[in-house]
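To the wet lab folks,

You asked to see what we're planning to order before we commit. Fair enough. Below is the target structure as tokens, and below that is the sequence we designed to fit it. If anything looks off to you, flag it before the synthesis order goes out.
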């Protein structure tokens, strides 16, 4: 080259072409090697994944295995048992009791103080001459044991015991029993609605984490492609720098982008592990899961008024607030019952007695009435407080309805916004793909630098990631919209609609 200056340009062009040919051959070889490695790695990855799970199957597993659903089921069963227990308030109460007692002394009458007066009267009668003299010794002989005896008449021995039963039947409790039964039914319905709310929330959570894992895995794939592409560009840049075709700064720029791409790839892999753990928590299992259902965007969506009407009918939160209002009204009836008399029939009998006096009756029946006259205005204040609670719940019910309507409108607008973004991103994706092709062709012709090619590669990865992120945001917003409308179970039907367009990071 220095010896023949007139051939310098030709020599440089030939050298540049040789370097490019080597670079192209390296790219081809790397591409073939990558394809072979990818074909090998994919089956291995498929073998490592223990379970491929569609979204339909994931929802079924979640609604069966998630601890929150099991807890809600137990809560519903408990509320059902409480309702059945309230029915028992109408039934008679039968008790069997037994007791043993040892008293300080026997119960009875002491006539020992009368011995003196009785003895005097007897002496006077015997000495009055009314009784023949020959009979007096016989009468005294008969009276001596009597006068020497203990004149204590025992009615009840100090040691006694008994076994008996009692029956109580409420006749009129002022409406408390009816109120308790209605309140128990309301609580049972509330438990069911709470279970529905948990169910809808779990569906939204599952969609968020299921598609979140799918998004994270696709981001890893995009980042891997970026690393592979930038790695090849780095090799080309090193070869060109060694041959003096590009400055040192060009190679440093590609190295910087390579380190950045590897760091983002590592972060993406860590994100996959985190979301996978969260998804397993939602599914209620530990098996590694591979999502296979693609994200989607709907072509047509019902009007926002449609979802507001559904929320008014099916939203579990609004249903619970309405049930709380009914429960508050039952609280007013309960406090009002305290002003009314309570009537109950009762009866009892003794089955076994141990040294119990015969004077005591062996059975008894009767009717009792209890009417509270004054208790320091306690009833009045509680009754007033119960009425204020009803007004409070009515206000909260109105506010909850408006909050749900605003939430539905917000989510609906977000979905429309994401759908519009998808159209723009699709156009950007087409441009980014063509721009990368153009930059690659220009680079091969020596009309573009390696840094421009790297930037084009990164721009395409960015657009693909944004596209998948937008689809993910759309599906999560749809799940939350259906949750707010109270129809989360319909998410699968939306997934299978004819206007549902699946979204992939590299193709339509």
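Sequence we intend to order:
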């Amino acid at each position: 080259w220095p010896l023949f200056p007139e051939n310098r340009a030709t020599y440089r062009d030939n050298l540049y072409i040789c370097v490019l040919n080597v670079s192209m051959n390296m790219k081809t070889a790397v591409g073939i090697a990558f394809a072979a490695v990818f074909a090998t790695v994919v089956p291995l990855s498929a073998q490592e994944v223990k379970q491929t799970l569609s979204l339909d199957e994931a929802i079924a597993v979640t609604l069966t295995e998630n601890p929150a659903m099991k807890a809600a089921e137990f809560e519903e069963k408990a509320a059902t048992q409480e309702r059945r227990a309230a029915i028992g308030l109408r039934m008679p109460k039968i008790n069997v009791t037994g007791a043993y007692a040892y008293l300080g002394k026997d119960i009875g009458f002491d006539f020992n103080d009368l011995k003196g007066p009785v003895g005097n009267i007897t002496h006077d009668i015997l000495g009055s001459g009314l009784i023949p003299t020959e009979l007096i010794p016989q009468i005294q002989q008969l009276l001596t044991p009597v006068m020497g005896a203990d004149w204590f008449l025992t009615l009840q021995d100090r040691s006694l015991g008994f076994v008996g039963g009692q029956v109580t039947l409420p006749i009129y409790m002022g409406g408390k029993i009816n109120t308790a039964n209605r309140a128990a039914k309301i609580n049972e319905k509330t438990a069911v609605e709470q279970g529905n709310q948990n169910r809808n929330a779990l569906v939204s959570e599952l969609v968020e984490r299921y598609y979140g894992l799918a998004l994270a895995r696709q981001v890893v794939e995009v980042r891997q492609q970026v690393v592979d592409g930038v790695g090849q560009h780095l090799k080309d840049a090193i070869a060109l720098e060694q041959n003096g075709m590009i400055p040192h700064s060009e190679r440093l720029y590609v190295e910087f982008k390579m380190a950045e791409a590897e760091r983002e790839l590592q972060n993406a892999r860590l994100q996959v592990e985190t979301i996978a753990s969260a998804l397993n928590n939602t599914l209620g299992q530990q098996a590694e899961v591979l999502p296979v259902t693609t994200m989607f965007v709907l072509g047509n969506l019902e009007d926002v008024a449609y979802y507001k009407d559904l929320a008014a009918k099916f939203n579990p939160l609004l249903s619970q607030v309405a049930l709380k209002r009914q429960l508050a009204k039952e609280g007013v009836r309960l406090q009002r019952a305290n002003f009314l008399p309570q009537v109950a029939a009762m009866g009892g009998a003794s089955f076994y007695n141990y040294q119990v006096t015969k004077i005591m009756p062996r059975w008894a029946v009767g009717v009792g009435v209890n009417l509270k006259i004054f208790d320091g205005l306690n009833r009045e204040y509680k009754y007033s407080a119960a009425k204020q609670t009803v007004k409070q719940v009515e206000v909260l019910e109105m506010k909850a309805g408006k909050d749900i309507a605003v939430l539905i409108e917000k989510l609906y607008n977000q979905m429309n916004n994401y759908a519009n973004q998808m159209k723009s991103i699709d156009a950007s994706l087409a441009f980014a793909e063509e721009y990368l092709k153009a930059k690659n062709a220009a680079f091969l012709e020596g009309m573009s630098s390696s840094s421009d090619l790297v930037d084009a590669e990164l721009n395409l990865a960015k657009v693909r990631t944004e596209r998948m992120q937008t689809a993910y945001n759309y599906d999560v917003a749809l799940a939350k919209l259906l949750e707010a409308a109270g129809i989360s179970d319909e998410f699968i039907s939306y997934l299978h609609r004819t206007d549902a367009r699946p979204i992939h990071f590299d193709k339509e």
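Structural context that might help your review: Strands lie at 51-53, 93-102, 107-110, 152-156, 159-172, 289-291, 295-298, 342-354, 363-370, 500-503. The two ends are 53 Å apart (CA to CA).

Thanks,
Computational group
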